[in-house]
Structure formats: C-alpha cells, structure tokens
Design a protein that fits this description.
With 118 residues, the chain is mainly α. The protein has one domain: Rossmann fold (3-Layer(aba) Sandwich), CATH 3.40.50.1010. The strands form two sheets. It has a two-stranded parallel ribbon with strand order 1-4. Strands 2-3 form a two-stranded parallel sheet. Helix 4 crosses helix 5. It is globular, with a radius of gyration of 13 Å. The two termini are 13 Å apart.
Length: 118
C-alpha cells in the first residue's frame, strides 16, 4: 500500500502517484499532521488550496485520517535525517504503519527511514 503526504495534485507527481488520484482506488489513511500542515501552508500563502476548500475531498470514500499517536511520536524520534519535527511526523506515520509515501518533499524523499513511491 502507499501513503499520501500531500493532497495537492501537481505536475511534480509522477505517473505512479497520479494513478491514485485519477482512478477509483481506495487510498490509505492520511496522517493528521498533513491536515495541520495544509492549514499552515495555506495561511502562509504557500499553497492554493486550503483545508476548508478541500473538505469535500476529504469526506469522500477514498480518504481516512490516521490520528497522531504516542507510537507514531516514538517512531519520529528514530528519524534522524529530517530536522523539522512536523515534517518528520509524516514519514514516521508511514514507517510505523509500514507503508510507502507519496510526496514531492525533497527532504522526506531523501530520508533513509521511509520508502517513497517513485
């Protein structure tokens, strides 16, 4: 299974990742931290789609959300090649659940602690 980091579909996503957005495929859970990051980035005008604008998408049958747990926080402690804690929580969730990530974040993609869908 794959894990989704960003909700924003863009040209940066490759054909493998785009498949999950263009086909009727049940996506795995989205880490709760992604919603927090999306709200933050929208408020800083760094992305065009905000949390409230995407609410309908999130309520679709293709998405569920993985709450932040103590076990995920313990997993984040093991990730030593992503300095920003909030960025670490996304791959920590994927690592804890043994899932691959879909992301265009260069720091997360370069991490040795998580598998990224290429």
């Amino acid at each position: 299974m794959e894990w989704i980091d960003a909700i924003q579909v863009s040209a940066a996503l490759n054909a493998g990742a785009t498949h999950f957005f263009t086909n009727d495929v049940r996506l795995p859970d989205i880490p709760a931290i992604v919603l927090m990051e999306m709200l933050y980035l929208f408020e800083k005008s760094r992305i065009d789609v905000g949390l409230l604008q995407a609410e309908g998408l999130f309520k679709s049958r293709n998405y569920q959300f993985e709450p932040l747990s103590f076990d995920i926080l313990k997993t984040a402690v093991e990730i030593d090649d992503i300095p920003e804690l909030h960025d670490r929580l996304i791959p920590a969730t994927a690592k804890y659940l043994d899932l691959r990530l879909i992301t265009n974040d260069p720091e997360i993609r370069a991490s040795s602690h998580v598998a990224v869908l290429q």
